[in-house]
Amino acid sequence: MNKPVILTGDRTTGPLHIGHYAGSLANRLRYQDTHDQFLLLADSQALTDNAHDPDKVRRNVVEVALDYLAVGIDPNRTTICLQSHLPALAELSMLYLNFVTVARLERNPTIKEEIHARGFGRDIPAGFLCYPAAQAADITAFKATVVPVGDDQSPLIEQTNEIVRRINAVAGVPVLAEARAIIPELGRLPGIDGKAKMSKSGGNAIPLSASSDAIRAAVRAMFTDPNHLRIEDSGQIEGNVVFTYLDAFDQDRDDLEDLKARYRHGGLGDGAVKARLEDILQALIAPIREEREYLSKDIGQVIEVIRTGTERARERTELTKCQVVQALGLFQLPLTRTKAGRSLSEGLA
How far is CA 315 from its chain centroid? Predict the structure, then answer.
């Protein structure tokens, strides 16, 4: 029986952190057994708001791939591929933009929020505004029927399905399938400073490659309950970053609930709670960091994983593009096949 196809990935703007692990990577390890999984190194999307620094996007392709492999993503069970080297995605994006209006793109709640957060005003990069159409191209090109996203990104899946329905209506056949969003139970982890978003560039995240000293320093700096001044004072769990992280990573749920009760009642200091979290994070990150260091000694092998996965993904996405073009009745010329493997290898070297 064919497994359902799942597409996920990350922008190549920096190494991944524990927020990525809790929110997506841990689930991706499980999806390897239950889904036909494609992991997209989204360098083209990263350029939509990093065009001023393409070198940052380029060098982080390998950094993100290292994180994937270090946490246990198996390239024999999960296809790791590079977005910019899949020309069908760009071609489908351009095609799909004819099936959506600028007004609809601007009304997308996810895009509106991101435009506000980045302070673009009306100086919105066109690539950024058109991201919903590009994501629709990504999802449909792989024929993905399930896409893991945060709750704040579900409008992007809705817009993907709108485009799918419009193209199917024009084609007169169901050439594309709609996708279903998977919303993780655990929401986005806050930064260690208590801010709503953990960010690679905001200095409030713990990278998966963090040293033991860096982990210790980050946990000690974590935001807790500002009114919990003495050990005997009652403490608040809600909004306390340390307990938010314990909820995400502590596997001993019964003991954790007892810890929360003692903190609320009074008699438990922040230092003891932070010590528990530090032990958990040290145990989680140490093997990932060690595996990452080992893999980084042979970057050529990492690039080979990306190249092989990208070639596999290219065949799949090119087929979808041809099916869409044919279903829409667009003119097609018989073209000679190019040496895609050679050009791809040169581009990744």
Answer: 23
Q: 5-189+298-348, what's its fold? A: Rossmann fold (3.40.50)
Q: Which CATH architecture has domain 212-296?
A: Orthogonal Bundle (1.10)
Domain residue spans of the chain: 5-189+298-348, 212-296
CB neighbours of 170 closer than 8 A, spacing ≥ 6? Answer: 99, 328
d(CA 204, CA 18): 11
Give this prediction's pTM. 0.90
Distance (Å, whole) CA 229 – CA 237: 14
Angle, in degrees to the nearest 10, between helices 154-171 and 131-141: 70
Cα–Cα distances (Å) from 28 to 36, 37, 38, 236, in that order, read 11, 8, 10, 33
117-159 tens-digit pLDDT: 888 888 888 999 999 999 999 999 999 999 998 877 888 999 9
